[in-house]
Amino acid sequence: QGKSKDRCVSLSAFSYTTGYTIVRRIAEADIVRLRKYEIPIKRVARRLCLDPALIAGIISQESRAGLLLDNGWDQGRHRYGLMQLGGQQQHLYGLWDSEEHIHQGSTVLVLAINDVRARHPTWTWDRQLR
């Protein structure tokens, strides 16, 4: 969509890492639940220049697409939402499975990636994403 590759985060960058196969298998098991969030994931991905598969993979890993949650919370009630946001420094907004909350979690991801890229500009793209 006209955006440069270095500004966008793609799941293909993870294809060389050891855990990719495991992440993919778990996401495939969660695909039915993930379909419920397909439209909001794609909208957020488009706005933040992320690969939708990356967002879906994180949702699958963190909450099994909501399966592991109790009204949006993890068992210890420390993390909230599909992407399992939490911590005292973070103001959580939106319902746990809303597009707004997916956007918040994805924004946290983008900020973290940008921070690693700024601190380690000589690292390869794959290493920065790990």
Automatic annotation (TrEMBL):
Cell location: Secreted
GO molecular function, one term: lysozyme activity
Keyword Phosphoprotein found: no
Keyword annotations from UniProtKB, A to Z: Antimicrobial, Bacteriolytic enzyme, Disulfide bond, Glycosidase, Hydrolase, Secreted
Residues spanning the membrane: none
GO biological process: defense response to Gram-positive bacterium; killing of cells of another organism; peptidoglycan catabolic process
Example of a GO cellular component annotation carried by this entry: extracellular region
Assigned EC number: 3.2.1.17
Family in the record: Belongs to the glycosyl hydrolase 23 family.
Protein name: Lysozyme g
Organism: Dryobates pubescens (Downy woodpecker)
